[in-house]
Amino acid sequence: MSAQTGDLYAQLSEHLKELRLPAIRDYYQRSAQMAQQENLSYEQYLLDLIERECEVRRQNRVERLLRESRLPLEKTLATLDLNRFSQRIVRQLHTLLEGSFLERSENVLAFGNPGSGKTHVVCAVGQELIRAGRRVYFTPCSLLVQDLLRAKQSLTLARLLKRLRKYDTLIIDDIGYVQHNRDEMEVLFTLLADRYERGSVMITSNLPFSQWERIFHDPMVTAAAIDRLVHHSIILELNIASYRIEQAKRKEVNVE
């Protein structure tokens, strides 16, 4: 490499750093060599560089959104055993993966016994939505109500609700699994009311609607919460045996 070429590369690197184009900065020399070898036009060379930068940015965005989402990353579509579910559930799952329910601010309500795969299903959908560029936030219901209650007590609830609005969907896991007091359920209802027809929520629960008064402790609040959730919703009824119990039984058979 001549001194003149070295100076040129140094200037290019500095300018690309200033323009915040790290992928092009790392790749342009190799791409230039390939362009010379394959006799590519200037336009083809430029396109190759821009495509590389765009791809790296897409990957970085997905990684950032996955970290921000707090989703359990092991619960993916690839690790979800679709053979355990009915054809109806599989069809609903494919529809959810299209992501159009977010544009309509529709909710997803997944019901089933412990171990039926509710959390895995909604988390797998959440990860695929992120890879399509959507913003998703996952939280166990027990932690969410604590955050909401602390925000209310510190007079910052409106600020927290506004921050949560930036997400295309909130995944609230295991509503009703842990019993909460009336104050905690009031702030949860406030969140659900705030999301109504404004943003999607994806909820998992072991309890059917007929038992939700145990969650909200008041028949009127319970009816209002269910009404807001069901009005625009997709309901997944996972009435299947526990995956964890099935796994334990297989291990017992193998040991014998």
What is the element layout, followed by pairings?
Layout: H1 3-18, H2 22-37, H3 42-69, H4 87-98, H5 100-103, E1 107-112, H6 118-131, E2 136-140, H7 141-153, H8 157-164, E3 169-173, H9 182-195, E4 200-205, H10 213-216, H11 219-231, E5 233-238, H12 243-255
Parallel strand pairs: 1-4, 1-5, 2-3, 3-4
3D structure, described in words:
The protein folds into 2 domains: 3-68, no CATH class; 71-247, 3-Layer(aba) Sandwich (Rossmann fold), CATH 3.40.50.300. 61% of the residues lie in helices and 11% in strands. It is built from 12 helices and 5 strands. It has helices at residues 3-18, 22-37, 42-69, 87-98, 100-103, 118-131, 141-153, 157-164, 182-195, 213-216, 219-231, 243-255; strands at residues 107-112, 136-140, 169-173, 200-205, 233-238. Strands 2-3-4-1-5 form a 5-stranded parallel β-sheet. Helix 7 packs across helix 9 (182-195) and helix 9 (182-195) runs parallel beside helix 11 (219-231). The radius of gyration is 24 Å and the shape is elongated. The model has no long low-confidence stretch (mean pLDDT 90).
Which percent bin holds the helix content? 55-70%
Question: Which CATH first-tier class of the largest domain would you pick?
Answer: Alpha Beta
SSE string, helices as H and strands as E: HHHHHEHEHHEHEHHEH
CATH superfamily of the largest domain: P-loop containing nucleotide triphosphate hydrolases
> Which parts are unreliable, with pLDDT below 50 for 5 consecutive residues or more?
none
When the domains are counted, the total is 2
| Strand order within the widest beta sheet | 2-3-4-1-5
Class from helix and strand fractions: alpha/beta
